[in-house]
Every structure is written in structure tokens, then in C-alpha cells.
Amino acid sequence: MAPKETLSGPENPLGPAFFRFLKDLKAHNERTWFQENKARYEAEARDPMLRLIAAFSGPLASLSRHFIADPRPSGGSLFRIYRDTRFSKDKTPYKTHLAAHFPHRAMQAGGVHGPGFYLHLEPGGSFAGGGLWHPDPDSLLKVRQAITAKPAAWKALRKSGLEIEGEALKRVPQGFDPAHPCSEDLKLKDFYTSTGFTNAEVAAPDFVDQVAAACRQASPLVSFLCKALDLPY
């Protein structure tokens, strides 16, 4: 086996306490416990995640200068730990994962629904990638139109081995040819791809590099989506 290459990227700010806290939160997902452990949440989970976001800003810029890694504790790349339970049968108040979104600068205000990169950290379920999630109807139409107008470019993404996921309609949407060679992908309502990580990989010294590699793998899809929406990449 060849020796492992020396790592030159940013160091991993996540320690063993990161997943321990998330596991404990899953076992005690209630407001009283969280309030009693809020300082622990900030020290062991939130703040290391913010440092990871900051460390990722350089690798992200090497992919594209049009995306943002914002390490602010509120209003930045980090998603809130609090769940919106208004329309959910699950009334547990807290998410049992931490996640960050790296939006396009042109869509920063509503960036979660625009092309971007994403990082999700959860014991046994971590991943990173990029794409377009729950776009507005106009954006979704533009992506479908781009697929039909440039089927060779879209097929090249598929042939590269990129697994493109998302919710899908049962039928090709109205206004599009059911016999189009990309008809199955025209049914998609989301367009994203991801790379999974084991707990050991998340804790490894080179994890920032691994996140960058996952986003680099997703970048051809993100680039296609940006062009479809008239955004620079």
C-alpha cells in the first residue's frame, strides 16, 4: 500500500466531542436538557462547525469565487439547530445534526433554494455535495429548458458517473416532450449529488480536504445549474 500523502490543507477543527454531543442530544431531545447543555453545544458542536466553515472558505474559493462560506453564528452558512415543528408530527425541538450551506453570492438572501454546496454532519449519516434543492418554479423551468436545449452536456454529467438525485414527478411535466432522451431527468424537482463520510473520516485531520473533494466532484452539476439560471460560476 502506498504511503498516505502529507496533507497541506486546513486542519480539522472537529474533535471527538462533536459527535458525542449530537448523540447525547438525540437521546435527550428536549428543551430543558438543551438549555442545561447550551454552553456545551456552543463549545463542542457549534463553534467547531463555525471554524470548519471558516477553514473551508479557501478551498471553496478555489472551486469558484461566486460561493460564500460565512462563519457567522447567525445569518451565515450554519443552519439553525432549532427545528420548525409547526407543520410536523415530530415535535422534537432540535435537529440531531449540524449542517452548512454555501450559497451563490447572487442568491445569498434566499440561497438555500439556489445552486450551492452543502455539508451535513450527523453520526452515521454525514455527507457533502452540491446542486439545487426545492427551486422556485421559474428556476425549475429554466433548468428543465437547459436540459432539453443542451442534452449532450447533461448526458456528459450522467456519463461521468455523477449520481444526480432529487424528488421527481411521476410524469414528464407539461410542455416537455415525453420522448426526449433526457425525459427521466425532466421529471426531477431537485438536482443534487453527494458524497458520504464515515464518522472516522469526519474526525480525520484531512476532513476539510475531503469536503473540498466532494464539492469538486459536484461542481460540474453546480456549474450546469448556474449557467441554466444565468449565474456566473
From TrEMBL:
<protein>
    <submittedName>
        <fullName>TIGR02453 family protein</fullName>
    </submittedName>
</protein>
<dbReference type="InterPro" id="IPR012808">
    <property type="entry name" value="CHP02453"/>
</dbReference>
<dbReference type="Pfam" id="PF09365">
    <property type="entry name" value="DUF2461"/>
</dbReference>
<dbReference type="InterPro" id="IPR015996">
    <property type="entry name" value="UCP028451"/>
</dbReference>
